[in-house]
């Protein structure tokens, strides 16, 4: 993932070329292959290139064809062949060897601001039109690539690397109180247009920013579709279509001979590994695919996944690196090594996560994850009950017996779920579970946390419009995804590593949202059918299971002491946020916490450590 940045002067002052060189040098750590700068009048652009595709071997940024329109960005285009065909039909000189950033520029010539209706993939880019003095910025549909910006000192600075904004503007590092509260309670910033800093914003996913004559406007160009349910005549058509889309999603994200995959023992990441292995084996140059798995001594939750992932690696005949961590490693906070991330690192085993990223980077520049496999196959547990409630008896009988005929398992009707929805106070239950008692009460009231907890975890009216797959629609729309992707981005890790997520391909998502909830989404039935023969039967037939024990809580029990606890001085930055006595009261009895509540202990440590590094 290349780094890029830009400065636009609202006073029409020329942007200092040395300032741009400084920004490019700062990003050299994540884009070591080639630096480029451009300055003309009120605009300045810079770029640090990380080559990850064959086409990028000839790539130069900032890029122009006529010195009137300039483009710079962090771009990986999907469905290149189709886009190139459409560009040629619009009299644009595109070829399969054309770098992705040049395809963006050609798309601008072909469609202007409507180019975002024609390109898909992972991207954040900026286009400068010197003739009209207009700046256009855009961020991809699912928010895989971040794009930050700040207006200060009569300038607009923008970048996919947040630290460039502090470096470029010399902005005071004033924290946004609401964002800090969000990290303490939820583990991520729920405001997709904000950051943890008061003066820095980010462009939300699927949005475009237009800056013209000093005026800045933001518009949304895409949202998850809500379409009719897909009905094929033959069950095998679902399998065939999914396999085609899934292989295309993985294939578009390979484009490199050396690739890694972070692999647990579940269906999602192992399916990615199986398809990537298949595609690389039949490609002309073959490839070097390696699986990476995190395990831990005496931590059953991680050892369990290690066992299953090893079965897959042996079955696929691919090498596997197993990163063995000790309990004290799991409890150790991350070390930033001169590159503090743009937000608190909320992973419970942050040091282990950092070690994993470093190992991935040592192997190569491209890594695949299984992120997104859960939401796209998420069924509505009460789907059949909803059908009954509407009096659609024929549909109920067709779905019930059709599912049983295909799977030999009776589908869940959802009566118990309906009853629990009616009689259980979900809002109170979520609040008690997620809002820590150590949070200062005035903050909970000021930011209406009880209501916000409910809205984050219970489907909204807008998602309920997607009657057949409302839970999947709701989860895919969650603010947690842009935060998850940002945590993987090189601007966060500080490594020359591009992490890609095949399940987040919007072609696959759009199609999957039209799937009948049963049987195809029940227990990931469609994915399991597609992977039969490609993965060991042990994995295909393994039921979906979360971690039985929380690794952090289990590590505390294994060590049997309180050496993990932070000192009061370590939590000083949070004096205005938490009641320290209440926190240490909870920290003294970690065994009382549920496996889903370890964030109550880890969140203050992560946030405070991050604040102290800045």
Class from helix and strand fractions: alpha+beta
Integer average pLDDT: 88
Q: Approximately how much helix is present in the residues?
A: 40-55%
Question: Strand order within the widest sheet?
Answer: 2-3-1-9-8-10
The rough form would be described as: globular
CA-to-CA gap between the ends? 24 Å
Please tally the helical runs, counting DSSP H or I stretches of 4 or more residues. Answer: 27
Radius of gyration: 25 Å
Topology:
Elements: E1 3-9, H1 17-26, E2 34-40, E3 43-49, E4 63-64, E5 69-78, H2 80-89, H3 100-111, E6 120-129, E7 134-139, E8 148-152, E9 155-159, H4 163-169, H5 177-185, E10 201-202, E11 207-212, E12 215-220, H6 235-252, E13 258-262, H7 267-282, E14 288-296, H8 300-316, E15 320-325, H9 327-331, H10 350-363, E16 366-368, H11 373-376, H12 383-389, H13 393-407, H14 415-423, H15 426-434, H16 441-446, H17 449-457, H18 461-464, H19 470-476, H20 480-488, H21 490-493, E17 498-500, H22 506-512, H23 525-531, H24 537-540, H25 551-559, H26 580-587, H27 599-613
Parallel strand pairs: 13-14, 13-16, 14-15, 16-17
Antiparallel strand pairs: 1-3, 1-9, 2-3, 4-5, 5-6, 6-7, 7-11, 8-9, 8-10, 11-12
Explained architecture:
The chain has about 625 residues and is an alpha+beta fold. The protein contains 27 helices and 17 strands. It has a 6-stranded antiparallel β-sheet, with helices on one face. A 6-stranded antiparallel β-sheet has the order 4-5-6-7-11-12. It has a 5-stranded parallel β-sheet with strand order 15-14-13-16-17, with helices on both faces. Strand 14 (about 290-295), helix 8 (about 300-315) and strand 15 form a beta-alpha-beta unit.
